[in-house]
Design brief:
With 173 residues, the chain is an all-alpha fold. It has a single domain (7-172), classed as de novo design (two linked rop proteins) (Up-down Bundle), CATH 1.20.1440. It is elongated. It is 68% helix and 2% strand. It has 5 helices and 2 strands. A two-stranded antiparallel sheet has the order 1-2. Helix 3 packs antiparallel against helix 4 (125-156). The longest helix has 32 residues, at 125-156.
Length: 173
């Protein structure tokens, strides 16, 4: 018997959200290790987790309206996380680049590895820029996904509307 993957696992936004979650966890462990950063670490990891989990929860909803709402929550979580990375960059005098095309690599376990400078693995320049641009890419895709679902909702209606139409048909016939 073969197990099929849930549909959300095919979404690029979900795949990116896994990478964001894994790399945020690694980033905060590496670059925000002191006791004074406990709250920041927790906030950043929870924002990354919230994005991933809301994509899953939204996909599993019967209501298109709820799906759109939960994708909005996922996007808002990423915006919060982006601000945390920007704050880190500003506080550590890391220059943010507009584009960063170096990709993270997966290890054999399937978990992503934070891209680090081979010359100085404690320099946050590469990881911060990578994360900021990965988050920007993902929010762009979430915006497009939300827009497509909104167009679908306008043209096809929502779950409640469809149930109401079925009820009317049932009463008539």
């Amino acid at each position: 018997m073969t197990m099929t993957k849930p549909g959300y696992e095919y979404l690029i936004t979900y795949q990116y959200s896994i990478e964001i979650y894994d790399l945020t966890d690694e980033f905060v462990s590496k670059f925000l290790g002191g006791r004074e950063y406990v709250r920041t670490r927790e906030q950043m990891v929870q924002a990354a987790r919230s994005c991933k989990q809301n994509i899953v929860e939204g996909y599993m909803e019967k209501s298109l309206k709820s799906y759109i709402k939960l994708l909005g929550v996922a996007r808002a979580s990423l915006e919060e996380l982006l601000e945390d990375f920007k704050d880190f960059a500003r506080g550590h005098r890391v220059v943010l680049r507009d584009k960063w095309d170096k990709w993270g690599k997966r290890e054999k376990t399937g978990k992503f590895l934070l891209p680090l400078s081979p010359l100085d693995p404690f320099d946050p320049f590469i990881p911060v820029n990578y994360m900021v641009n990965l988050i920007r890419r993902t929010t762009y895709l979430l915006d497009r996904q939300i827009s497509a679902l909104e167009r679908k909702f306008i043209s096809e209606g929502g779950y409640t509307e469809k149930l109401f139409q079925k009820r009317l048909s049932y009463r008539k016939g």
